[in-house]
Amino acid sequence: MTTGATDRSTERAPAALPGQPWNQRRAGGAGARSHGPGAADLPRWPLLAMLAGAPAWWVLGLSPFIPAIVAFVMLVLLLRVPRVRLVPGVLALVLFALWCPASLVMLDSPLRAIGFGVRWSGIVAAMLVLIYLTNSDPRRLRDIHVLSALAVLWAFVVIGGYLGLFWPEGRLTTPMAQILPSAVLNNEFVRDLVMPKFAEVQRPWGAAEPFNRPAAPFPYTNGWGCAVALLTPVVLSLRERVAAPWRRHLLTAGLLASAVPAAATANRGMLLVLGVSIAWYIAVQLRRGQQRAAGRALGLSLSAAAVAAAGGVFSLIAERQAVSDTTTGRASVYLATLEQVQRSPILGFGAPRPSQEIGIALGTQGAIWMYLFSYGVIGALLFLAFLVGVLVLTRGTPGLPDQDAWLRAVLAGALVACWFYGFDGTHLSIIVIVAGLLLRSRAQATPATQATQATQAALPLQRVHAGRAGGYRWS
Fold first, then answer.
1. What angle do the packed helices 268-287 and 291-310 form, to 10 degrees?
2. Is residue 305 part of a domain?
3. pLDDT for 448-473, tens place per residue?
4. What is the H or E stretch that residue 202 is in?
5. Quick one: 202 exposed, middle or buried, by C-beta within 10 A (0-12, 13-18, 19+)?
6. What is the rounded distance in angstroms from the CA atom of residue 321 to the CA atom of residue 315?
């Protein structure tokens, strides 16, 4: 028994307050860690491996399946978290993923049920990635880590573009293709996924020579163009964040290098999406009073347009359009899709279906048309509500850095791209990761959160002597 002075061996550290930074705790507190308001102790490796590991997944033939595999890992990790948050902006995507299975009753064949499962798994994977990222600790899974991993993916897409330029007839035989049954490989879409070609070689009637349009690491050129359009603003955001000059120069060199395969695709949609993203960024910076940043972006876009014109990009687009009028073909698909959706506006049809009249499947040629035809008006509106909701919620958020204007430009571009580009698992992952970074920053920067942290920091910690035992209490 001790007498007299307080026995310091019985002193205990205070219980952790919600949101109290770990480095503000008194040492000796049972090793618990705090991760900011609502943040969970989630590892960063699943997300970084999915993005930075893209070259390995492509060579192995796993690229189409990686988002779902990683999302399952994230689900397991989320189930170990005591409390998972749905921050504002996430609910619309969750409702979209939950609504899709209602359209199962409209499927008319088992094969379409398989297609439904593949597409829905991509949507569910995107939802889980978004929830995982918005629940992660920004001091453990930092924005710079995520953006750097996205930049690795972007660099790999650019390299794939050069593969399509130099070896347009090339095709990669992956280990996944070796183990799949020949009956499965006979499906052209499956074969393009696990035995990806480097480029789409198109020989429209009347063309003087074939159009070699880079596609790798995606099955089709439009997938390549969509990825470049979504990732280029991400790289510009990263370029503004890095401090080392050599890193900025490296990213600048990569941006210049990406223009060569981008021009070879003759992809009008990619140019449109990039134009919308840059215009959005300029408008945001002007509203913030950042005329210098807006001027730099305007100068960049005008210089890029001049180089494209001098390099014959616009003439190549016009030449391809003259022998392959894809605009008229797309318009007929969209009109037929709208007409057919009127027969099942609520549930849709579960999956795209071929049309005997126009020879192209309805519910294709754009993500929003696929969602509208497959999951009905409600499904399409929920997806649009997600994109618009994130843009609205992060508008003028206190504490968001200027670099996030480029990230918001990604979502503005996605709002345009969804009308003529299909979104596969990789595209959806890019979109929800950018949205997750913005929503997580908003959750950390809201006035309510800042007021809570200020109040907790002001609480006086007083030593209280109670008889022969020592302890602490908050008062």
1. 160
2. yes
3. 544 444 444 344 333 333 343 333 33
4. strand 199-202
5. middle
6. 10
